[in-house]
Amino acid sequence: MSSTARPTVAVAFHSGYGHTAVIAEAVARGAAEAGAEVISIPVDTITDEQWAQLDAADAIIFGAPTYMGTASAAFHTFAEASSKRWYTQTWADKIAAGFTNSGAKNGDKSSTLGYFFTMAAQHGMHWVSLGVQPGWASTEGSEDDVNRLGYFVGAGAQTPVDAGPEAVHKSDIATAEGLGARVAQQTAFFRAGRAALAA
Ligand SMILES: Cc1cc2nc3c(=O)[nH]c(=O)nc-3n(C[C@H](O)[C@H](O)[C@H](O)COP(=O)(O)O)c2cc1C
C-alpha cells in the first residue's frame, strides 16, 4: 500500500466513445477534492508501470460503459489480466467501488455494477457503496437530483446514444464526483484505522 500521508485512489476505467471517460474524470475530481492522490488509468492501454500503480494504490475504482448488459469487452480483458493479481491476492484489503454509463435509462447497468462488485470480492477488496439516497424518486424530485437514476451499489450514468460526451448529464457528473469523494474519505478512514491498530 502507499506510504504517503494522503490515500492513493486509482480510477481504472474503459470508455469506447468518451462518455464514460467524462464520468471517470468526475470520479477522479471528487476523490482529489476530498484529499486523495488520484491516478487515472485507461485499462485498454494499461502499461506495466500502471499495473504497478494499481498494486500500490489504497483504493481502485472500476469503471466501464455497459455494453450488451455488462462491462465492455476491453474492461473484461483487463479484468481477466488482473487474475495474476487474484492468484497472489495482491489487491486484497484495498478499497473498491464502481461506476458505469449506458444509453438507456436503465440499460441493465446493475449487471455491470454487480460485476465490478464480484470482481472486487474475488480480489478480496472492500466495496464502498454510493451512499446517496435515490434522487428523482418523489413528486418533488427531478432529473437534476444527485443519484437521479437511483443506484446504491455504485454510480450509474446515462447518456443518449446519439449524443456526444458533452451531453453527459450534470446530475450524473455530480453523482460521480460524490462517489470519488466518498471513496477518498472511506479510504482515509481505513488508513487511519490500520495506523491506530499498528501503533
Ligand atoms: C457494443 C455496444 C453495446 C451496448 N450495450 C448497451 C446496453 O446493454 N445497455 C445500454 O443501455 N446501452 C448500451 N450501449 C450504449 C452505451 O452504453 C452508451 O452509448 C455509452 O454512453 C457508451 O459509453 P462510452 O462512450 O464510454 O463507450 C451499447 C453500446 C455499444 C457500442
UniProtKB/TrEMBL annotation:
Pfam families on file: Flavodoxin_5
One GO cellular component, as annotated: membrane
Annotated GO MF terms: FMN binding; NAD(P)H dehydrogenase (quinone) activity
Domain of life: Bacteria
Record domain Flavodoxin-like: where: 9-154
Name of the protein described by the UniProt record: NADPH-dependent FMN reductase
